[in-house]
Amino acid sequence: MTASLDTRSLRTLTLALDPAMLGGLAVTGPASFLNTSPASDPLCWLRRGEGLLGFGEIASFNGTGASRFSDAERWWKALLAGAVVDDSVRMPGTGAMAFGSFAFSKTSTFTSELIVPALVIGFAGGGAWLTQLTLDAGAPTAESALGLLRDVLASGAAPSPSVSFESSTPEAPSAGTVRSGALTEEQWKESVAAGVEVIAHGGLEKVVLARDVVATFPQPVQRVSILQRLVSLYDECWTYGVRGLVGATPEILIKVVGSTAQARVLAGTLDREDEPEGSTGFADKVLGGSTKQRQEHDFAVRSLTRQLAPFATDLSFPSEPFILELPNVWHLASDVTAELASSNGHLPTSLALVEALHPTAAVCGTPREDAGKLILELEKMDRGPYAGPVGWLDGAGNGEWGIALRGAVLEDAHTVRLYAGAGIVEASDPEAELAETWAKFRPMLQALNLQRHP
Asked: Catalytic residue among 73, 113, 205, 251, which?
């Protein structure tokens, strides 16, 4: 574990963001601060015109291994111990807060991290706020916070009438190319067949197998442009950006507001490529009538509720899943709600729940220890942050953590590695599972303006 934290105390100031503070610039929501200039690439967590954008960095945690979650929790609590928080807004995400991304596997070499930004712009419930965070001796003021905001606006993230987040004229495909990653398509289908065989022999109910593809570009990739496209195309999803990790996930691992926790479980997928205008009734018939898809979904819901139950006084979820309609796919989805139980006068934090719940059956399998071992054997790659927790937490224990799906890692200025997976059960067909991964690659391929594959 490493951390960029000194002995100075964290100081934060949160104030409501009045339009007059922006010097007459029209700001309609968080997407207004996304501009194609890379000068102020933000930390990002946005959905339906609400969320958080972070700029700059004053402290960070970095860790690997099985203790990455508990190490991060200890680091965060140590940072909060001497914090001086001035927060007149008092909403989830105000005051002390950090963005985070964690590796999927305890065996991964990928660095899990929490990042405390210098400035946060937040949007919720039709309002907006501004938070300055600092380790400097002097307390932040309204003037210093607005000065940082002006710096952000001046660096290229300023709202501009010329910035369009949607266009009726499709762009020409990028000159980038896509190639197989750790496994070719044939090799990955062989891994799926091997997973089905293991399940057929008993003991394992489901395993989620992922694959990667690598996109390369002659021109440097613009990270903020990717976020801009994802926000525009996948507004129903949570668009995330933590350093080189970007994506738009439809699945929430855990959201904590006060004593209430919520999760969204997705398992069971139908590609919309051939039926883009089809109704949810069509999806309900195909997904809801599929024994394979319903079985996969049931495994995922049972896994999450089993792990969440020890932390809850009350736990509820629907008897039947609903159809979640996204631009690229339909999913079977279930929303789970829990009232959290207090232990020694303290409620579990969002990060403590992340550690308990990850990985779920939706991204690993069940039983998860057996599925995790088979993943390492069959995937032939390090997932890195793919399917790991990504999101934010604040000093009050609130937080919102998604599962890093429909995403990619920007490995360097010209190289992007995309990930997608599929839930494998005994009835799985390797060719169909391969097609499902391409449906799940589609959001990032669109964000990168790439054709499917050569």
From this structure: 251
CB 210 within 8 A of CB 419: yes
Query: Residue 428 has what pLDDT?
Result: 93
Question: From start to end of 139-235, where are the E strands?
Answer: 177-180, 206-216
Contact 426, 273 (CB under 8 A): no
Catalytic residue flag (residue 285): no
* 185-200 helix and 368-379 helix, angle to the nearest 10 degrees: 150
CB atoms near residue 356 (< 10 Å): 14
Which has the closest alpha carbon to 250: 271, 229, 264?
264
Q: Tokens 């319903």 correspond to what residue? A: 294
Mean pLDDT (the chain, rounded): 88
Residue 206 is a catalytic residue: yes
- What's the mean pLDDT in 391-413? 97
Longest dimension (CA), the chain: 67
Helix (H, G, I), strand (E, B) or coil at 42: coil
d(CA 21, CA 365): 49
The residue from 73, 113, 205, 206 that is catalytic is 206
Question: Exposure string (b/e) for 190-199, b if CB count within 10 Å is 16 or more?
Answer: ebbebbbebb
Give the residue-averaged pLDDT of 212-224: 94
**If pLDDT is split at 50, 70 and 90, which confidence band does 267 have?**
confident
Residues 108 and 230 grouped into a single domain: no
Q: What digits encode the pLDDT tens for the residues 324-360? A: 888 888 888 899 999 999 988 889 999 999 999 999 8
Half-sphere exposure of 300 (CA within 13 A, CB side): 31
Average of per-residue pLDDT across 168-177? 63
Domain membership flag for residue 165: no
Domain count, the chain: 2
Same domain for 150 and 192, yes or no, is no
Environment class of residue 82 by beta-carbon count within 10 Å: exposed (0-12), middle (13-18) or buried (19+)? exposed
CA distance 215 to 444: 10
Full-model pTM = 0.91
In this structure, the answer to whether residues 123 and 200 fall within a common structural domain is no
Q: What is the pLDDT of residue 159?
A: 41
